[in-house]
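Final report, Chapter 2: Outcomes

The project's central promise was a pipeline that accepts a single protein chain and returns its three-dimensional structure in a standardized token representation, suitable for archiving and comparison. That pipeline is now operational. To close this chapter, we reproduce one record exactly as it appears in the project archive, with the input sequence first and the structure output second.
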Amino acid sequence: MEFTLLAAAAIAVAAFWLMLRWEAKHGNAAGCTLDLWDAGLTAAAVGLAVGRLVAMAQTGINPFSDPAQIILVRSGVSTVGASVAALAMFAFLARKSFLEASDGIGPSALAGLAGWHIGSVVTGSWLGTVSTLPWAQTAPGSDITRHPIEIYAAALFFVAAFAIAAWKQKGRPPLGVPAGLSLAAAGVIRLITESFRVSLSGGPVLLYAAAAIGGLGVALWGATAKKRQNRAATR
């Protein structure tokens, strides 16, 4: 069992829960913290499972003949598979009030991602490309200093989460805008930090770009919805 990965997951869940609780005390856009907690955890669990199965299929591992490999999450999870599955599951669970629930969970999802990146310090996979900056760190047994890239990502995710949450609390924003901004922030942050990561394939950059563009599109749609309604009513 990979206990360090469990610790990283626990940090992510704790960050997600704390943001939900903080927003609930200051006026959550969805007004249903418990439902968001359940839906968020379920979507994350399904996404992780599907992402692992996709990664196994990509590397030629048969989950039916070798089911024990499924729990070896650290050996590979498909980012695309996990993301699509998690979003699909959340959309299914929140199908009766998808936009409201998405607005409510957006900042907490960003906080959860921040917690996950912080958890990489526990797993020992938090360093990126070579750097000579004063805060660069070295891996055990190495003299090469590297960017603490996962700390960069965690800080950016936390800033985005609190910025969107604080904006929500100033007054009820247009429906869909917080969700769109949260999705766009996730895509932009991953695009910014991707070049600092050590990777043979470069990561799913197209997925991050699609999240950034799609999120901005949703936010723009939500921001202009009222104007479109008023225009239609005057015709």
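Archive annotation: The chain has one domain: 3-233.
This record, like all others produced under the grant, will remain available to the consortium after the project formally closes.
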